[in-house]
Amino acid sequence: MRRQNGSASVVAVAIVAVLVVFALGAADLARVLVAVARAQTAADAAALAAAQELAMPTDLAPADVASDYAERNGAVLVECDCAEHTFEATVRVRVDTGELLLFGVHRFADARARAVVDLPTS
User: Which of 8, 47, 91, 110 shows its CA 20 to 30 Å from the CA of 117?
Assistant: First the structure.
């Protein structure tokens, strides 16, 4: 009987280790999902801002406006298809998830958005 006294401790340690791995995985998943949502929000804002700049031009370039709005939302503008003399902007942004707890690497969330300004005809 004396040989089984420590067996419950080994099982408890194994269960705690599995729970810690699951908790780290859940935290990483939450971090990635937040980055995906932030990327989509930034892409939407950047595309809308660029399309507005195309429709009602100021002295700024549509790509610069899109980049500014992406940065305000915690993203980096990767691509902006903002052709002059059109009212359509398509952007792609990237958000860094930060270092993940379980894997210890940085991942990126990319998002795309397209905005078209439909001006009323007279």
Answer: 110
Q: What is the pLDDT of residue 84?
A: 83
> Quick check: helix, strand or coil at residue 96?
strand
What's phi and psi for 45, nearest 5 deg? Answer: -65, -40
CB 99 within 8 A of CB 105: yes
Q: What is the pLDDT of residue 2?
A: 56
**pTM of the prediction?**
0.81
Measured CA to CA, the distance from residue 87 to residue 85 in angstroms comes to 7
CA dihedral 90, 91, 92, 94 (to 10 degrees): -160
CA pseudo-torsion sign 52, 54, 59, 64 = positive
User: DSSP class of residue 101?
Assistant: T
CA separation for the pair 68, 98 (Å, rounded):
21
Nearest Cα neighbor of 97 from 76, 121, 119, 72 is 76
